[in-house]
Amino acid sequence: MRSLLTFLFIALLTSTANTATFTLGKVGNGRNIAGILIEGEIVPGDFAKFESEVLRRQNIDPIWLASPGGDMIEAMKIGELIRELKLSVWAPSKNGLLFPAVSNRANAVCASACFYLYAAGVQRRGEVVGIHRPYLPQATLAAMELDAAAQAQSVALGISREFLTRAGVPQSIIEHIASIASNQIVWLTADELSSLNGFIPEFDEWFKAKCAKDPKTHLPLTMVGRFECQSKLLESEQAAAKFRWLLRSAPRSE
Prior knowledge:
The chain is an alpha/beta fold. The protein folds into two domains: 2-197, 2-enoyl-CoA Hydratase, Chain A, domain 1, CATH 3.90.226.10; 201-249. The chain is 47% helix and 13% strand. Strand 3 (63-66), helix 3 and strand 4 (88-90) form a beta-alpha-beta unit. Helix 1 packs across helix 6 (146-167), helix 2 packs parallel to helix 3 and helix 3 packs parallel to helix 4. The longest helix has 27 residues, at 223-249.
């Protein structure tokens, strides 16, 4: 089993695609906006680039997602860091509004492996989100015997299920992913997106408790007041999470 897992990871990490870009978000007139834009296909090595960008920059929230997919394992690594740093994610809208300018309109989607980045956000927004089941490259599968190929595909699906379950994706969507052929993309419906968009339940309940009343007047906060309270709390939590990650990733002297 261990040798199969090793083979599977090598197969999933094999790609000849161009790497994704990680840049500051910009609107049509070239003005910078908060957040980092991930654009293009996700390939091995992109996690290190993403980590470098988020650790050296300020105002990195949200993470704007403009990717047709790519490498599942690399996307999961990026997703783990997104969740660890308590970052929000924003997929493209159908009309292209409220989203940074992209260099290639074909990238104005969040599909396939990009879904793992979207799932990882502690707050999710967006409309153009596409899914299908994970798969190994056809050349890899063609070189394998049927039983080995079936087992490898099963392992890949298991890895996907585990990640998405931990990210809090509803089981109905996880099961839907498993049913969609790898050469198809199914776009999430408005109902499915409504079950995902917004803060993840754990954060939502905490914010409701923390931002219910004004600490001075003890009166209920207005909608604007709750938004400001949540923003300040999230910013503080993100700064603390980033500091902890920097401490763990710093070189240790012998």
